[in-house]
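Q: What residues go here?
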């Protein structure tokens, strides 16, 4: 009997749905016991998010100072053969509940020497967050075998509208409207079951004891090279502003709220002026930087890769 633990947190239920689809084959498999750990912050995050609360969350998110979690319990005496760590991205960092789990002594003890598969569901910017998760996993002594990254439907320009609108109003949009529905497409969520099927096959062959990956050839992680520079710049900017804002006090302090308003104005000005110009510049420079960006794409797509050669074997529901 193999024991698989899946750890997750979800505000809207989207990531839980992905986890549900992905884990269905594991749940149905004989010889596998699936255990769930749904993380709960001691103080919940609002949804939909009031704008100021949303922005006020970024300094602690990027500096890994999350709200603490409620105590959790797992069945005693169970050694997990595989851990699936599902998370969403907040401000180019792992969402606070996942960081809280990865930093906790209980979480670290649980992950020590364990093979881990990370599963991300976010708008489309997950590279910097996964770098941080890799570091936190290494600190916990875990072994990362695979990474699956699922992203919202629609172009980057459209999800720049649909995802924040969803987060700030709770409105995902209508199929009849001109914008795509916010979040992952139903197809993306449904087809997550291929990863579960491949995990069942791999566990059957004890492959989780090896170096991995177990999920190659399944289009697990596709990197859009156009987003690599944006992620790096965004991360740097969050770190600088986060440092300044944290000096003004903890989330919710009056001085910080005033500065946050200035930050929002700064961001909007940047989006209207600098972002289009830098996008144009980067489009012009891309042919020159192509080789470098392709090398970075290959790096960020590791360990599972973007290959599709096993899709036919594992795509049925
Ligand atoms: C505070 C906050 C910040 C976010 N920042 C990012 C981000 O930097 N990159 C990204 O791709 N998605 C970002 N998202 C979208 C989430 O990754 C995710 O898609 C969304 O919150 C739905 O997840 P759920 O399962 O918790 O409902 C953010 C969402 C929230 C609430």
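A:
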């Amino acid at each position: 009997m193999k024991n698989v633990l899946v750890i997750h947190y979800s505000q809207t239920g989207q990531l839980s749905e992905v986890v549900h689809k992905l884990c269905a084959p594991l749940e149905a498999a004989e010889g596998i016991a699936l255990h769930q750990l749904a993380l709960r912050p001691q103080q919940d995050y609002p949804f939909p998010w009031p704008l100021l609360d949303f922005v006020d969350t970024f300094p602690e998110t990027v500096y890994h100072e999350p709200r603490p979690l409620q105590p959790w319990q797992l069945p005693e005496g169970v050694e997990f053969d595989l851990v699936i760590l599902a998370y969403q991205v907040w401000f180019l960092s792992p969402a606070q509940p996942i960081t809280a789990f990865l930093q906790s002594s209980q979480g670290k003890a649980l992950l020590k020497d364990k093979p881990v598969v990370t599963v991300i569901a976010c708008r489309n910017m997950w590279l910097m967050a996964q770098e941080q998760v890799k570091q936190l996993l290494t600190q916990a002594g875990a072994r990362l075998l695979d990474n699956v990254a699922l992203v919202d439907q629609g172009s980057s320009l459209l999800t720049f509208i649909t995802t924040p609108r969803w987060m700030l109003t709770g409105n995902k949009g209508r199929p009849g409207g001109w914008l795509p529905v916010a979040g992952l497409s139903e197809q993306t969520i449904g087809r997550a079951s291929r990863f579960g099927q491949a995990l069942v096959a791999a566990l059957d062959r004890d492959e989780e004891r090896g170096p991995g990956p177990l999920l190659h050839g399944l289009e697990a992680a596709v990197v859009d090279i156009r987003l690599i520079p944006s992620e790096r710049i965004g991360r740097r900017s969050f770190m600088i502003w986060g440092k300044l804002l944290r000096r003004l006090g903890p989330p919710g302090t009056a001085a910080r709220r005033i500065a946050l308003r200035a930050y929002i104005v700064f961001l909007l000005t940047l989006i209207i002026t600098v972002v289009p110009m830098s996008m144009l510049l980067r489009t012009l420079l891309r042919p020159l930087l192509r080789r470098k960006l392709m090398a970075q794409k290959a790096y960020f797509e590791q360990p599972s890769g973007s290959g599709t050669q096993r899709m036919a074997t594992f795509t049925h529901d």
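A: Context that may help when evaluating the design: Residues 10-12, 14-15, 54, 57, 88-92, 121-126, 163, 167 surround flavin mononucleotide (CB under 6 Å). Residues 230-292 form one domain.
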